[in-house]
Amino acid sequence: MRLNFWKDFLDLLYPRNCVQCGIALLDFEPHFCTKCQGTLPVASYHLYPFDNDLTTKVKGLTQVNRVMAFLRFSKKGKSQHLLHLLKYRNMPEIGEELGRLYGIELMSKGYQEEWDLIVPVPLHPMKQKRRGYNQSEKFAKGLSKSLQINRISVLERVKFTETQTKKSRLERLENVDEVFSLKKDANISGQRILLADDVITTGATLCACSNVLLAHGAKHVDLITIAAGGR
């Protein structure tokens, strides 16, 4: 009874609301209400991960293996709204919850045996300090919890780059050239790696990271993001 009292008291002081629509959450709803979770624009890339428009996008830029995204991105749509909250409104829990939900779906399809490590795409230290967290690491954390696969940050961003948002495909590729490196003393030789990021557009950032991992002995690298977007 005492536990219930304090829980009710805390809920009164700090109400838990759906991150999508804002209504009060029930006890069994972590971050999304049941309705909003059911209307997420879920994609089906994990059902054909070796041959889809995302694998076509990165072909020739890195050694193509699986490429998957949880949500379909659309301008002014639900996925864009969630990414905006995650990246610019100090809501890291969104990334972790989306990772958890996608991990559950991947588990149901037997993917938990496919990887040894989950590696997030890193932010530059200056940008991470400003934001307070790395949104890709939060997504990787949720995936790790559901898939029960170790999450490890073995990559570092050694150059500060301008935002990719308004750059062309060629400009994005040039913008991430020699930006990433493997951390000192990291050993990924022979590891099957799931590389996680928030969104894939041209694929330039993910491919740059993938190439670093492959160059240091990773057996293979699969790419996974919260959302897949235009261009």
Strand content: 15-25%
Count of helix runs: 9
- CATH hierarchy class name of the largest domain: Alpha Beta
Largest sheet, spatial ordering of strands: 1-7-6-2-3
Structural class call reads alpha/beta
Number of strands: 7
Radius of gyration: 18 Å
Shape: globular
Distance between the termini: 55 Å
The CATH topology of the largest domain is Rossmann fold
How many structural domains in the coordinates? Answer: 2
Main sheet characteristics = 5 strands, parallel
Residue share in helices?
Answer: 25-40%
Protein name: ComF family protein
Domain Phosphoribosyltransferase: 136-229
Family: Belongs to the ComF/GntX family.
Organism: Algoriphagus boseongensis
Report on this model:
The chain has 231 residues and is an alpha/beta fold. It has two domains: 1-39, no CATH class; 41-159 and 172-228, 3-Layer(aba) Sandwich (Rossmann fold). The protein has nine helices and seven strands, in the order αααβααβααββαββαβ. The chain has helices at 2-13, 34-38, 53-58, 78-88, 92-108, 125-131, 135-147, 169-175, 204-215, and strands at 67-72, 117-120, 150-151, 155-157, 180-182, 192-200, 220-228. It is globular and about 50 Å long. Residues 136-229 form the Phosphoribosyltransferase domain. This is ComF family protein.
Task: List strands and helices in order, with pairings.
Layout: H1 2-13, H2 34-38, H3 53-58, E1 67-72, H4 78-88, H5 92-108, E2 117-120, H6 125-131, H7 135-147, E3 150-151, E4 155-157, H8 169-175, E5 180-182, E6 192-200, H9 204-215, E7 220-228
